[in-house]
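Example record used in the benchmark description.
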Amino acid sequence: MAKVPDLTSEIKEFGIRMGAETIGAAPVERFAPAPQGFKPEDLLPGARSVVAFTVPQLAGYCENVPCNSYTQFGYIFKNLYIDRIAWEIARFLDDRGYWALPYCREGQTTTQVEGVNPNPFVERKYRDKEKAPRIKVALRGDISMRKAAEAAGLGRIGVNGLLITPEMGPRQRIGLCITTAELEPTPLITEDVCNHCLNCVEACPGGAITENGPEEFDPVKCIKTVQRWTSSYEDSLKNFLSRRQNAWDDETRLRRDAKFVVYNLIVGTGLCGSGCINTCPIGKRTIR
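Model output (C-alpha cells):
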C-alpha cells in the first residue's frame, strides 16, 4: 500500500501519460452537499477519493460548428477516449490493492425502472391508455461531473454552467474515477475563473443562459435550440426519448431529465453554434 503523497503523485503522472490534460483528487468529504444517492460512496461503498481529469476540446472543430468533426471528435470519439483514461487509472489503482470505479460517461444507473411492464408497446392493446401497465424510466446522472472536477481543484463553474479552467476555459471534457484509496486532496481554486463578461448570455440563441448563472439555466430552451425543435418541449423530449421511456410524471421531472439530456447526450451536435463555449475569452487560443 503506497503512502498517500507518493500514490497521489503517481496517479497524476500516470493520468497525464494516458492523455489527461489536467488531473486532481478530491476527498469524498467535499461531496457532502450532494443529495443522498448522488455521493461517491453511494456508487462505490468505502470510497475515499475521486480522481477527476480533463481532456481538451480543440479549437479547430469547436470554432467550426456545426460540423461532423465536432460531433465525432468532441463527443463520440472523446467519450471512448475519456473512458479509456478512466479505465487505465482504475486498473492502476486496482493493481495496487484498491477498489476503483471508472465512472461511466452516461451515468452508472442512467435508467431507473419502476413498474411491471417489460414491453413499452403493450399499451397498444388497451383501448383506455391510462389503464395500461406502464414502465417508468428516469434519466439522470449519478454524480455531477462538473462539480466533481470543481471539487478536485481543476476549475470553477461559470455563468454558462460549464466548468471553466484557467488552462482551457470551458473547452474540455471531464472524466472521473472513484476509489477507496486515500489520496492527497488537490487545493481548491477559490477565486472565480469566469470573468462574468456575459458573452455566453448574449451568444446563446435560445436564451437558455442568464446573467444569474446555472441556477437559472433553462435546459428546455437549450435542448430545443440545439436540436432546432419548434414543437412543445413535452412533444420534443418525448419524441427524442421514446426509445428509453414511455411515461412522464410531471413538468419538474421532465425538466430534470432535459438537463441530463442537454449535458450528456445532445450538446455534441453543436447546431446552435456552441456560443456558451466559443465566445468565452478564458483560455481562448488565437489562430497561428
